[in-house]
Amino acid sequence: MDKTSDEPPTSAVLLDNCHFSQVVFNNVEKFYVPGGDVTCQYTLTQNMVPRGKDWVGIFRVGWKTTREYYTFMWAPLPSDTNSGTGAQHQIQFKAYYLPKDDEYYQFCYVDQDGVVRGASVPFQFRAETEDDILVVTTQGEVEELELQNKNLHEENEELKASCASLQQQNINLQEELKKTQELQNNVESLRSNIEKLELELNSLRKENKHLKEQDDCRGAELHQLKEQIQNVSSDKDRLASRLRAALEHMDQLQSQVLNYEKEVENLSRVNHDKTEQLESLKEENRRLRVSRTQENPRDENDALLRRLPRAGEGSSSSSVPQAPGPAPEGVLLFGNPYCAAGANLGAGAANVASLRRCPMCSKVFPEDTGTSQYEAHVQSHLLQCPHCSQTFDKSNKQVFDDHLLCHGLE
Fold this sequence. Notes:
Layout (H helix, E strand, L loop, with lengths): L22 E4 L4 E2 L5 E7 L10 E6 L8 E6 L6 H4 L3 E6 L10 E7 L5 E4 L3 E3 L13 H154 L4 H19 L23 H5 L27 H9 L2 E3 L6 E3 L3 H13 L1
Parallel strand pairs: 2-9
Antiparallel strand pairs: 1-3, 3-6, 4-5, 4-7, 7-8, 7-9, 10-11
Helix pairs in contact: 2-6
């Protein structure tokens, strides 16, 4: 088909023949010889206005919708619309795109809306036959033809007689040939049976040989399987011994974990006690700072120094290692913030400023330093537990990590 351009506009709606007379096809032959180009001639009536997407298609007789075209060509648009009405137009279909069967076809003019505007009479694509030729002869030719016909009739009678004799001979020969063919068929049947038996025998021999080879292979596979079973058994025994050792080691680890949990619990309890002592000392320190402006600082420091030895004796029995501090008399987890003041109380009132010494880094703050600034500095040396709000020295991070581990085991 002619597919050099895009598909023509068609419609899937069943059409009637109310508009088929708007385009008239002229000089349509009853048949066209295959292998040659076909020229289609048509005339547009005054009711037909050609448009750019009109096309002429070849349809097989019996079509229902315009989508059933076999091939098509675009209808040429006249240069002058007025002159196009009533004028004859033509389109040439190439032989390559024409049907190759002898069915009946017809030309149809389809506008760009997919509506048929005209249809031709049916025609065929077939070769010319003698029935389609009109022969004109003279009287002499007729007499000559009659004489030839008479001679041919006589010859025909003689041929019939010889044909009858030949037919009888043919019948006899056919009977003999039939017998010969029967014998030949029997021989062929016996030969085919012999060949089948030989093929079956060869097949059985090959199958027997193959079964022997399979038997040898399976014997070797059986031996390999036995060796694999022995290896698996030895591996199983070895793995079983390793499993028992692993279970014993796991029991030891579980007992160690229990001991570690108990030890961590004891350490957590001791850390809690130390933290409470620190909080108590912080509170007492705050009260001392408040009352220092109203009372004699020396009397307050003497009283604090008298309490510190008792606090050190009460906590010295603990097995937890002491936190680093600036003075040896302190036993608190974070050191005694008043140890420097207690050591210098004999020096007089001029050393009262030592109460502002950091217990972690021994930094000395002036007397006019605010309490919040001093506490913020001390807090920068501490780590606070996110679970229980306990504080730990940053220099002893291992204790802080053990404390967090205790919360993870709870």
